């Protein structure tokens, strides 16, 4: 598929329960123009592949990580903030390994960020929520 859809911009892989690190990494090599990626409900891959994907998907504007409990970590968010700094919307709902450090990294790196869903992220404190709000209001 990746060999024939080089101009693909929107990819929905939600609930692809058999998606592995290798298959996701391979897909990442084939879509340089991707701006929207939905991998919600995919719980089999780890945060290391997210770091590789962020490096390849630097044009990403919308990312849905809802329920990606193994992949969505503070390290993954730092990579997304570094490589995909034009991110506008990210859904991190119920990603219970995400903490203050990752969210703050996104907030400081992704200056175009307009929507951030952190519902169910139990490690995030109220202080971080206030800092994210203030940094976006005054940026």
UniProtKB/TrEMBL annotation:
Entry's Gene Ontology cellular component terms: SCF ubiquitin ligase complex
Ranges where the F-box/LRR-repeat protein 15-like leucin rich repeat domain occurs: 3-129
Superkingdom, taxonomy of origin: Eukaryota
One GO process term, biological-process aspect: SCF-dependent proteasomal ubiquitin-dependent protein catabolic process
InterPro entries linked to this entry: FBXL15_LRR, Leu-rich_rpt_Cys-con_subtyp, LRR_dom_sf
Transmembrane intervals: none
Listed PANTHER family: F-BOX PROTEIN SKP2A, PARTNER OF PAIRED, ISOFORM B-RELATED
Protein name: F-box protein SKP2A
Species assigned in the record: Capsicum annuum
């Amino acid at each position: 598929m990746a060999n024939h859809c080089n101009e693909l911009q929107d990819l929905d892989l939600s609930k692809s329960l058999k998606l592995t690190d290798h298959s996701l990494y391979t897909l990442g090599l084939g879509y340089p123009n991707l701006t929207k990626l939905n991998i919600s409900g995919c719980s089999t891959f780890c945060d290391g592949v997210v770091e590789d994907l962020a490096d390849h998907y630097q044009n990403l504007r919308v990312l849905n990580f809802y329920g990606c409990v193994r992949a969505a970590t503070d390290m993954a968010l730092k990579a997304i903030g570094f490589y995909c700094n034009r991110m506008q919307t990210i859904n991190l709902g119920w990603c219970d390994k995400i903490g203050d450090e990752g969210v703050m990294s996104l907030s400081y790196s992704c200056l175009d960020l307009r929507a951030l869903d952190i519902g169910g992220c139990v490690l995030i404190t109220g202080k971080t929520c206030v800092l994210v709000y203030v940094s976006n209001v005054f940026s």
